[in-house]
C-alpha cells in the first residue's frame, strides 16, 4: 500500500506583492517521524563534499558542506520522499533531485544571496526541510544591497526554522529578495537543509555567471 501524502499546514509571510515564504513548523514530527533520527540518517547517508565558489577573482571554499540526491536514487530516510510528494501535491509542480547543505557547527554560514543559477527567477519555488539546531534564516529586499540610505540594509525578516520545520520561498522571491544563513550569536550544533527547487522558466533569464563560475575579462574591447 502506498504511503499517504501528507497535508501541509503552512503559515504564509507575504514579503511583497509577488514574493512570499510559507512555513510549516514541526512538519517532520507531524509525519510521525523523530527529527533527530532523520537528521542522523541524512548526515550519515549523504556523500558530503566541500563546494567552491569564485569570489574576489579567486576560488574559495564554501563555509559549509554540500551533497546531492539525484532523481531515482534511494533516499537515506523515507521522510525525504514523503516531503517531496507533499510539496508537489500542495503546489501542483514537479521536482527533480534534492540537494543538501550541511552547516557543521556555528562557524559555518552562507551570506545573503539569490539562487541565480536557476536563471528564470520571476516565478520559482524553493522548499527547504530543516533538520538540526535552530539557526537564523535571513531575508532582505535585493534593493537594500545597493541603497546605502535604506533604514534596514541588512536582513528584514528572520524565519528561524527549527528542527523538522519546512519552509518554501515562492513567487518572485529569487528575483527581488536575498536569503542567507548567518553565523549565530551563540554556539550551535549541526544543521542540515534538504532543498527542492522549481522554476516556471517564465520571464527574462538572468544573464551572467554565478558565484559557481569564474568571470573572464577581456581587453579586446
UniProtKB/TrEMBL annotation:
InterPro entries: AlkB-like, AlkB-like_sf, ALKBH3, Oxoglu/Fe-dep_dioxygenase_dom. It holds the Pfam family 2OG-FeII_Oxy_2. One of its GO terms (molecular function) is dioxygenase activity. Gene3D superfamilies: Alpha-ketoglutarate-dependent dioxygenase AlkB-like. Residues 94-200 form the Fe2OG dioxygenase domain. It comes from the Bacteria. GO terms for biological process: DNA alkylation repair. PANTHER family: ALPHA-KETOGLUTARATE-DEPENDENT DIOXYGENASE ALKB HOMOLOG 3 (PTHR31212). This is DNA repair protein.
Amino acid at each position: 500500500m502506498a504511503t499517504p501524502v501528507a497535508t501541509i499546514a503552512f503559515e504564509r509571510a507575504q514579503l511583497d506583492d509577488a514574493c512570499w515564504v510559507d512555513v510549516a513548523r514541526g512538519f517532520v514530527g507531524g509525519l510521525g517521524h523523530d527529527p533527530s533520527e532523520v537528521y542522523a540518517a541524512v548526515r550519515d547517508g549523504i556523500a558530503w563534499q566541500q563546494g567552491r565558489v569564485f569570489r574576489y577573482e579567486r576560488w574559495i571554499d564554501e563555509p559549509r558542506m554540500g551533497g546531492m540526491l539525484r532523481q531515482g536514487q534511494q533516499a537515506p530516510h523515507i521522510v525525504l520522499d514523503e516531503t517531496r510528494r507533499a510539496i508537489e501535491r500542495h503546489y501542483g509542480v514537479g521536482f527533480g533531485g534534492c540537494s543538501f547543505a550541511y552547516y557543521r557547527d556555528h562557524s559555518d554560514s552562507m551570506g545573503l544571496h539569490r539562487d541565480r543559477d536557476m536563471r528564470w527567477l520571476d516565478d520559482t519555488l524553493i522548499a527547504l526541510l530543516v533538520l538540526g539546531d535552530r539557526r537564523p534564516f535571513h531575508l532582505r529586499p535585493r534593493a537594500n544591497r545597493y541603497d546605502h540610505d535604506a533604514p534596514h540594509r541588512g536582513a528584514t525578516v528572520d524565519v528561524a526554522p527549527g528542527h523538522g520545520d519546512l519552509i518554501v520561498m515562492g513567487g518572485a522571491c529569487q528575483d527581488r529578495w536575498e536569503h542567507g544563513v548567518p553565523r549565530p550569536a551563540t554556539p550551535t550544533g549541526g544543521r542540515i537543509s534538504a532543498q527542492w527547487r522549481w522554476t516556471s522558466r517564465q520571464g527574462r533569464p538572468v544573464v551572467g555567471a554565478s558565484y559557481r563560475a569564474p568571470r573572464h575579462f577581456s581587453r579586446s574591447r
